[in-house]
Design brief:
Largest sheet: 9 strands, mixed
CATH architecture of the largest domain: 2-Layer Sandwich
Distance between the termini: 15 Å
Shape: elongated
Radius of gyration: 22 Å
Number of strands: 18
CATH class of the largest domain: Alpha Beta
């Protein structure tokens, strides 16, 4: 690798807080970013949004793509409009919609009571039209082909569901949840519980962790000249982790995959589990695994710094 390649990789490391527009897939947005980057610099998103959805899409750039899993684990906030009195094969307005004949109109109290089963740590059935894989194929590809899709219910965490407004058939909710939660499934299950059916009409992701929509930039506003200015430090992907600062000698060892023993970290209490290893200037150099019983920190994901 040439010196210029190293310089390029070092320059293009960070996170983009983007405001995904409607009608585009998350992959479309990543491709749009990739066209503005040097050829050898990678990009990847941390959390899929359906084409009809808008809002926060965090795109990791350069070696920060190694942090996608960390961003995906962050809590998320959504605002959604649910249409009661109808069902869809995709559980949203983009599918084949079937109106419920003579639906009963639930009260606000009945809706809130039905939502109670959706709060907390729950088992949720993912939609058949989803990006999850079944025997190596995307579930939505199988569903579109008319093939059977069997997706097991998965544990998810829903921290809060607040009713913002209700005027039949429209119900607006704000939801705080953990990774892997499908808002379409919440709409489906709510409709089933009420007996009138429901589907997701709109969806806005207003937050991923410390990345709010108010600070997001539209992908179309990015250019080759300004993209670097919008990159946020990779350290923001792991801001909740304990940190250990490395001098140049320790940094060199980490970049070679060598573990750091406690005697080389004077005054540092080695924490158990995942730890952020940072340079003296405060840049994220790597994620490590602390083992206080063995008195060692082992590098797990090393970034270009």
């Amino acid at each position: 690798m040439s010196l210029e390649d190293v310089k390029t990789e070092t320059e293009w490391v960070g996170l983009l807080n983007l405001d995904k527009p409607p009608g585009k897939t998350s992959r479309d947005v990543v491709n749009q970013v990739a066209r503005l980057l040097p050829r050898k610099v990678k990009a990847g998103h941390a959390g899929t949004l359906d084409p009809l959805a808008v809002g926060v899409l965090v795109v990791c750039v350069g070696s920060a793509t190694r942090l996608i899993e960390n961003v995906q684990r962050m809590g998320k906030t959504y605002r959604t409009t649910i249409r009661l009195g109808a069902r869809s094969d995709t559980h949203d307005r983009d599918g084949a919609i079937v109106e419920t004949s003579n639906p009963s109109v639930p009260t606000l109290e009945e809706i809130d009571q039905a939502l109670e089963s959706q709060r907390g740590k729950i088992l949720q059935q993912p939609p058949e039209h989803s990006a999850l894989k079944v025997a190596g194929r995307r579930a939505y590809d199988l569903a579109r082909a008319g093939l059977p899709v069997e997706l097991a219910a998965r544990p998810v965490r829903v921290d809060r569901i607040e009713i913002l407004s209700y005027s039949w058939p429209w119900l607006e909710l704000e939801i705080d949840c953990g990774s892997g939660t499908y808002i379409r499934s919440i709409a489906r299950d709510l409709g089933d519980a009420l007996g009138c059916g429901a589907l997701m009409e709109t969806l806005v992701r207003t937050r991923i962790g410390r990345f709010p929509r108010e600070c997001a930039i539209a992908p179309d506003q990015l250019t080759r000249e300004n993209l670097a200015d919008h990159l946020r430090p990779a350290l923001e992907a792991v801001a909740d982790l304990p940190r250990i600062a490395l001098d140049d000698s320790l940094l060199a060892d980490i970049q070679q995959g060598k573990a750091l023993a406690a005697p080389r970290l004077p005054g540092v209490a080695i924490p158990p589990g995942e730890v952020a290893l940072v340079t003296e200037s405060g840049r994220l150099a790597a994620l490590g695994e602390g083992d206080p019983r063995q008195g060692v920190v082992r590098p797990r994901k090393v970034l270009v710094v």
